[in-house]
Design brief:
alpha/beta, 2 domains, 15 helices, 32% helix, globular
């Protein structure tokens, strides 16, 4: 075990309030932007106000959304016309995305229009109310310049402070590095400047633990939660992937990178008062280590149903309201393996067993898998339910891999123990840190099983079930919009991706059409897609995909695919639980059964 960093930081809000109290200047009016929740910011304002100091403390994270929540009265609002800022070093829709989910926050019937404004640093809002009165506002969005690991430039949200004198003249206006930004910068600096080995993987596990002040705030009526610990997790994880891509001489976004397992562990420091400073400050630790994370015993809970037939397993799988553990998945798939055996077996990087079962029938074979990206949970249960349903069809012919990436899935379960509402993208890839579908050299570990299942079954179609964030995905310390993933930053409904060899385009098109038609029959899904697509288009200003019967579809030529056609499903499932998860894996199951049935006709006609 190597300790790369052990550091404590002073809390910016506490420090800033102390400075104002030490040098009151009551004739000045202050503003601060920081990465703190509304409760802590209001407590600080009140403390200063008691000493005659006027201050307004705002959120540097999603400043427009916080301004609408904290400063606007939407009662009787008739229309809101928003001009969002533009910047030469930001994508044209960057500030539209940062305004998400404004379109869902306003009362029904409010006319919302969003248009590009000036190359500036503020949103401009024009509001009209039903009684005829109007209001105009400007909302400052503080940003600073930054450079990515691969050298491109951009702007990213940051802390800021301003002061005006009694005549309203600005006497201070400058960026201020906050504790939140400093924690990120210190962790990156320590890791980037460590003497890593010359070849991949660089470590077994890189564990970055932080105890920070921060907030998690639900936005009523939208299903969205703003979370600074989650945002830090996302930014650290993907920023480190970018660093190690550069260190290896790889291109940005290369999914073959095998740095090792990166594990951000970001938690909000316990406080009994919103302005309390923890006794040891804000803690940051970065360790490179090889031993496994502490986990709970891997047995089944006493009340867990132990199916003894495929029918029993199918019934129980349909009720799952949380992602099952690896042990629970083993119990649920056992009837399939007992009936059809194990067609191929393998082992994960961390030594977990992984297997596929194969039901041979008279129909055209299909390979079905879940859990390639282990934090995409509806695909795991949807694939399970699809396999159990296919098994009950006498002539069905398929191979089934329950969880392709068990190491990532185990990490996801560990995260869920303390942060069930977060996206956990650090659990997305394998313990080597790569995407198993892109692995291009031995040792093959998990990635061998997909090839073996395709070879054993002779399948020409692979159904790979996936998910994506069910709420907004941001990287607020490196440009806000996740680099390379801007299509997935906000939900847009149940999405289909068809990848196919060029001479199989007609079959892929027919498959997309048949599956999209079948999804119209899933109760509630057409309305769900319409709502999400409307919100997506309001805040992205684009639609870079086609719609088939209301389902977003992307068609992609891939002459290097393991099968002539692959159907990848994408349901916004990360963090969903309860009835929402049941709805998600029900839609996934429907897609599996529709694709399997359609494929029998499509291949027969080829």
């Amino acid at each position: 075990m190597t300790l790369l960093l052990s550091s404590t930081l002073d809390r910016t809000l506490t420090q800033w309030v102390a400075e104002r109290l030490a040098h009151p200047q009551p004739e000045w009016s202050w503003q601060l932007w920081c990465f703190e929740g509304v409760e802590a910011r209001r407590a600080a304002e009140q403390m200063l106000s008691k000493q005659g100091i006027h201050a307004r403390i705002r959120s540097a994270y999603k400043p427009l959304v916080h301004a609408v929540l904290e400063d606007l009265d939407t009662t009787g609002l008739q229309s809101l016309h928003l001009h969002y800022p533009l910047h030469a070093d930001a994508a044209p829709h960057r500030f539209m995305l940062e305004a998400y989910p404004l379109a869902a926050m306003l009362p029904p019937g409010v006319d919302l229009q969003m248009q590009a404004g000036q190359h500036a640093d503020s949103y401009t809002l024009a509001l009209r109310y039903q009684d005829g009165h109007t209001q105009n506002l400007q909302v400052f969005a503080p940003n600073r310049s930054f450079h990515t690991a691969h050298g491109s430039s951009g702007i990213t949200p940051c802390g800021w402070q301003q002061a005006q004198d009694a005549q309203g003249r600005t006497v201070h206006d400058a960026a201020l590095q906050t504790d939140y930004e400093a924690a990120y910068a210190q962790a990156l600096h320590a890791i980037e400047h460590h003497a890593w080995p010359q070849t991949e993987p660089f470590f077994g596990r890189l564990h970055i633990a932080m105890q920070l002040t921060g907030f998690e705030q639900e936005i009523a009526g939208t299903g969205e939660t703003m979370s600074t610990p989650e945002a830090m997790h996302e930014d650290l994880y993907f920023s480190l992937l970018e660093h190690f891509q550069k260190l290896s001489g790889r291109a940005a976004g290369d999914r073959r990178l095998q740095p090792g397992q990166i594990v951000p562990d970001i938690r909000i420091a316990a406080q009994s008062h919103p302005l309390e400073q923890t006794s040891v400050g804000l803690q940051i630790h970065a360790l490179a280590l090889s031993e496994p994370l502490p986990t709970a015993p891997e047995g089944l809970p006493p009340a867990f149903f132990r199916p003894n037939s495929i029918d029993d397993a199918a019934f129980h799988a349909a009720q799952l309201q949380r992602a099952p553990s690896l042990a629970q998945m083993d119990a649920l798939v056992q009837p399939l393996f007992a009936a059809y055996g194990s067609a191929c077996q393998g082992q994960s990087v961390q030594g977990r067993p992984i297997a596929a079962t194969y039901k041979k029938g008279s129909e055209h074979a299909v390979v079905l898998s879940g859990g390639q990206h282990a934090n995409e949970i509806s695909g795991v249960t949807g694939a399970l339910r699809g396999a159990l349903a296919l098994a009950q069809q006498a002539d069905s012919h398929f191979a089934y891999i329950p969880i392709e990436n068990p190491d990532g899935y185990d990490l996801h379960q560990w995260y869920c123990d303390y942060a069930p509402q977060q996206m956990h993208h650090a659990a997305r890839y394998t313990a080597l840190g790569d995407d198993l579908a892109y692995r291009d050299h031995a040792p093959w570990y998990e990635s061998a099983l997909r090839r073996d299942a395709i070879a054993a079954s002779g399948a020409q179609l692979h159904l790979s079930l996936h998910g994506y964030p069910a709420h907004e995905w941001t990287r607020p310390l490196s440009g806000y919009v996740p680099q390379g993933f801007d299509l997935w930053t906000i939900p847009k409904g149940f999405f289909l991706i068809l990848r196919y060899r060029k001479d199989w385009q007609a079959q892929a098109e027919a498959l997309a059409e048949r599956v999209a038609q079948a999804l119209l029959k899933v109760e509630g899904l057409p309305e769900y897609n319409r709502r999400q697509l409307a919100l997506y288009q309001s805040h992205s200003g684009r639609q870079p995909f086609e719609l088939r019967h209301g389902t977003p579809c992307s068609m992609q030529v891939d002459d290097n695919g393991l099968t002539p056609v692959s159907l990848i499903t994408e349901f916004p499932d990360q963090t969903v639980v309860g009835d929402a998860l049941v709805f998600a894996h029900t839609a996934q199951r429907a897609a599996v059964l529709a694709a399997y049935a359609a494929w029998q006709d499509i291949v027969q006609a080829r």
